[in-house]
Amino acid sequence: IGSFPVDFEWSVSSESFKVEGGWAEHGKGETIWDRFSHEDRVFENQTTDLACDSYHKVDYDVYLLRGLMAPNYQFSVSWACIFPTGRKESLLEKAVAYYDKIIDTLLQSSIEPTVALHHWDLPQALQDAGGWENDSIVEAFKEFSDFCFSHYGDRVKTWITFGSPWVVSNLGYGTGEHPPSGKDPIIVTHNILKSHAEAWHIYNDNYRKLHGGKVGIALNSDWVEPRNPSSDQDVAAAERYLNFMLGWFAHPIFVDGDYPAMLKEQIEKKKDLCGKELARLPVFTEAEKQRIQGTTDFFGLNHHTSRLISESLNSSSDWIQSVPWGVRRLLNYISLEYTSITKVPIYITGNGMPTEYNGDVFSDTERVDYLKAYINEAMKTVHLDEIDIQRFTVQSLMDGFEGPQGYSQRFGLHYVNFEDPDRYANNGSHSLTAHICA
C-alpha cells in the first residue's frame, strides 16, 4: 500500500527516571520512584540511582539518535530535578542547564525535541503533602509547566503534559503496584485532568503566539475484543473497559469536559449492587468543564497490546502480546469517538515491547517482528482508513529502569550493560549496542 507521507514524523522516546540516574546530584530532589526503589520494592532490589547514566551522557545519547537517523526525540523532564521540592522557590539551576544541554545538542544535530512534563516521577516532597490526591497539586503543576514553557519553549515546539496518566491513577493510587500506593485513583484522575487543562491554557494564553508550538496529552490504552462477540454481555464489558482505560481521560478533554456517561452509570450500578457507599466520580462544575474541553492540539497514544474481555473475566493475556491489528482498530475507535470531534491529529507517542535479556544482545527477532507489524498496521490506518496519524514513536531509545521489573525488561533500540558501572557494553568498546529494528 505504499509508504508513509513524506511529512510523517518518526520519533524514539525515553523517560527521565528510567534513564537519567544522578538521582541526588547537585541537590536534585527525591522522586516517588527513588523512594520506591530504595525500599527494596523492585526486582532484585534494583534502583534508579544510576540507571543508564544519561545525566552524564548527553552527547553520547544524541550520538545514538544520530545513528538511528531519528528526526525527533521524545523525553520527559524530571519535576524533582528542576524543582527539588516541587515548587519554584527550590529551582535548581544546574538541572535547568542539564535539560538546556539536551535540547541544544539535539537541535545542533537537526533532531526536534518533544518534551513530556510529567511521566510518573512525582517529587516525593509533593507526595508527602498528599500528591495527586491533594488538589493543591494543580497549582504546583501550573507553576512547573509555566516555568518549562517560559524557559525551554523557544526551542521546544511539541509538549506532552502527562505520559500514560492512567498508570499513575490505576497502578500508583489504585492497585499499589507502582508508587506511591495511594488510595483514591478517582480524585487523582480528577486533579490530573484539571492540571492538564491549566497547563494547556497557560501555553495557549501566554506562549502559543510567541513560540508557535503544540500541547497535548499522551494517553495509554489497550485495544479490547469481547471474548464472545455474540454475547451482549461480553460486548458491553469490552466497551466498559475502553471507557475506563481511555474514556476516563479522553472524554473530558476531547468530547464535552465531563466523564463518560457509561462510566458514571457503572459506578452507580456498583454502588447499588454492593448496598454501600463507594467512591464517586467527582463532579466538574460547568466552568471546569469548559476549562477542560478541547485542551489539546493532538491525541497522543501509548499502545502496546490488545486483550480479550468477558463479563466474568477481565483479561486472558499477559501484559504484552503481539496483536498488530489491534492498533488499527484502536486508532479507528479514537478517530470515531474523539478526534473527529476535536479535529486534531493522532500522534502514536509510544509503541514497543520488552524482551527478557538472556545474554545475547542480538537475539531480538520477536521484537523486530512486533515493530514491523505494528508500523505496517499504522500505515494501513493512514492509507486505507484515511485517518490523520502524523507521528510514530518507538519506545524506547535504550534499555532502562522499567518500574517494579527494574532492569529485567528491555524495551531499548540500544542495549545497555547494567553490570558495568560505567554503563558500557562489550568490555567498554561501545556504550550501547544497537538492535536492528527496521
TrEMBL record:
GO terms for molecular function: hydrolase activity, hydrolyzing O-glycosyl compounds. It holds the Pfam family Glyco_hydro_1. InterPro entries: GH, Glyco_hydro_1. Keywords: Glycoprotein, Glycosidase, Hydrolase. GO terms for biological process: carbohydrate metabolic process. It comes from the Eukaryota. The keyword Protein biosynthesis does not apply. Belongs to the glycosyl hydrolase 1 family. Homodimer. This is Lactase. It comes from Sinocyclocheilus grahami (Dianchi golden-line fish).
